[in-house]
Design goal:
Layout (H helix, E strand, L loop, with lengths): L13 H14 L12 E4 L4 H12 L2 E4 L2 E6 L2 E10 L9 E4 L3 H9 L1 H21 L12 E4 L7 H12 L8
Parallel strand pairs: 1-2, 1-6
Antiparallel strand pairs: 3-4, 4-5
Length: about 180
């Protein structure tokens, strides 16, 4: 079975993309019927939610969100210096990824990186309250976790989302 996913020329919308991805993952054995516990499908808001919704339906998985915030450059908020992801219910603390470039090193040296990280952690706490009543994302260790977004630009937020998973006991990456 090939792990390379053939892509159609384009998707009509995020729903169609989620159905395509969900069916592909089901074919690889990631559905609830093939496992002892339903997979945890984590959506990166906002664009990843409609895609992940369809994936979770097809796989009969548990849908939740994973709050990840980009740490933008001072004066250039769209320029990602890194990202921070929320902690989980197992007690893992929020995790920060810093890009390895001169802009990020400058922001780290000046303290602006940490200041922006603090603002983004406050926003994560606000969204945790709004979306989950203040609860953390479910514990991820020892279960199949599928992280879904609707695209990847610089990769900083997806790296931040995935790195805490790699710290989980028993983590085994899949293609």
């Amino acid at each position: 079975m090939s792990s390379v996913m053939p892509l159609p020329p384009c998707f009509a919308d995020r729903r169609e993309a989620g159905i395509f991805l969900g069916r592909h993952l089901a074919g690889l054995g990631f559905g609830a019927a093939a496992q002892c516990e339903p997979p945890l499908v984590l959506a990166l808001p906002r664009g990843g939610v409609p895609v992940a919704f369809e994936v979770a339906l097809i796989l009969e998985g548990r849908l939740d969100i994973l709050l990840v915030r980009k740490i933008g450059a001072p004066g250039y908020p769209e320029l990602a210096l890194g990202a921070v992801v929320e902690g989980d219910a197992a007690g893992n603390a929020p995790y920060t990824v810093a890009n390895d470039d001169r802009w990020t090193r400058r922001a780290l040296d000046s303290g602006t990186f940490d200041a922006e990280r603090g603002r983004q952690l406050d926003e994560i706490a606000r969204r945790q309250q709004r979306y989950r009543g203040g609860a953390s994302v479910p514990a991820m260790a020892g279960r199949t976790v599928i992280v879904v977004d609707d695209g990847v630009a610089t990769g900083a937020t997806m790296r931040a989302a995935l790195l805490p998973l790699w710290r989980c006991e028993g983590f085994t990456p899949s293609p």
